[in-house]
Amino acid sequence: MAQRYRGKNMKPKLVVVGNGMAGMRTVEQLLQIAPDLYDITVFGAEPHGNYNRIMLTPVLYGAKNFADIVIHDFDWYRSRAITLHCGPAKAVVAIDRTRRQVIARDGTTADYDKLLIATGSLPLLLDIPGRDCDGVMGFRDIADVETMIAKSARRRHAVVLGGGLLGLEAANGLLKRGMQVTVVNRADHLLNRQLDAQAGEFLRRHLAETGMEFQLGATIAAIASRAGHVVEVELDNGQKLPADLLVMATGIRPNIGLAEAAGLECRRGIVVDDAMQTSDPAVYSVGECIEHRGELFGLVAPVYEQARICADQLAGGTGSYRTGFAATMLKVTGIDLFSVGDFDGDADSETLRFVDYGLGIYKKVVLRGDVPIGVILYGDTGDANGYLRLVRDGVPVSDRRRRLLFGGATTAEAA
């Protein structure tokens, strides 16, 4: 590794590749605990400051504009003496680990003592015949949102492939922009990773009332275009749907190409240890691009915890990352949802349900013996933290089984 002489007033150099929520959360945390420790340089492929990707949907349907979701504007970087290189020409294309240097597309270089890779994820676009035409896209950044808004102003029919959270958010935004929207989902019900079939049907009925249409248990077999622009999709069940816009929301994959090319250990993601350190001790990584103990990440809560631990490590601390208990708390088109654990159950489990069609409330608790192992809440998530504690800690509930689906029975006092 390169050796450098540093005078008394020279700070070690921290370079961050990725100007998104994970990398900049790490920088933000680092500035709180060690504000003068590093000379910081940030590279981002988008021509903006850091913004909240979770809030892209309100921008899509017009409730917010881009300025409303910016977390750190250019003045924020300037006032903290952070050098920001942003835009497509400033995207980092190579890491020279011997020289400890990163190289951007336009030739800009930056030396580092510590490097943080926070390159996030890429949309998983399925290899469907006819895919390479105008109007077929993913949904990951503000540029995608701007494209969808422009298309919705002069086009009528939208098809969204994927009935997960991202797909439903895109569909809802396009619907509110006045498009006729059909969601195509390979699974037989919506949000199949977070909900069971009955809760998924609750959600489908709610969304159908807004005008959204669905093709469930199906996928797209071919894409037809005219003059280079998508006009129709054919499903594997033989049906054909008009499509002036096709949004693929079929998942994400860690963006590990840069790390792989630099010779860092990668599997499905960039492999990191409990200190968020890669196979190179000078290189750290956080966010959707990493793999920690065999697990990948797509939710904000664990990513922000990774950022906290990484900042502590960069500041000389001994913080250690542990994957938290997986639970999902969502708000989809105004409906609150919560799920945790094994909510499908098996032959050795028992299921308790509460259903109120009038109020649009569905609750399900799966028990093994007297211990809850999985929960779904639809429409009423007020006791979500209590249910999470019961499942996470394996709390027996024999004394309150009859009240378990109703408020108050999840608290410690209810025991």
Q: Strand order within the widest sheet?
A: 5-2-1-9-21
Q: How much of the sequence is in beta strands?
A: 25-35%
Percentage of helical residues?
10-25%
CATH topology (level 3) name of the largest domain: FAD/NAD(P)-binding domain
Determine the mean pLDDT. 93
What are the segments in which pLDDT stays under 50 over at least 5 consecutive residues? 1-8
Descriptive report:
- This is Nitrite reductase.
- Pfam families: Pyr_redox_2, Rubredoxin_C.
- Belongs to the FAD-dependent oxidoreductase family.
- Its cofactor is FAD.
- This protein has 415 residues and is α/β, with parallel strands linked by helices.
- The protein has 3 domains: 13-122 and 252-314, FAD/NAD(P)-binding domain, CATH 3.50.50.60; 136-248, FAD/NAD(P)-binding domain (3-Layer(bba) Sandwich), CATH 3.50.50.60; 327-414, FAD/NAD-linked reductase, C-terminal dimerisation domain (Enolase-like, domain 1, 2-Layer Sandwich), CATH 3.30.390.
- 23% of the residues lie in helices and 30% in strands.
- The protein is built from 10 helices and 27 strands.
- The chain has helices spanning 21-33, 56-61, 66-69, 74-79, 142-154, 165-176, 197-209, 257-261, 300-314, 384-393, and strands at 13-17, 39-44, 50-51, 70-72, 83-86, 92-96, 101-104, 109-111, 114-117, 121-123, 136-137, 157-161, 180-185, 213-216, 220-226, 229-235, 240-242, 245-248, 252-254, 270-272, 283-285, 290-292, 327-332, 335-341, 350-356, 361-368, 371-378.
- The strands form 8 sheets. A 5-stranded parallel beta sheet has the order 5-2-1-9-21.
- Helix 1 crosses helix 9 (300-314).
- The radius of gyration is 24 Å and the shape is globular.
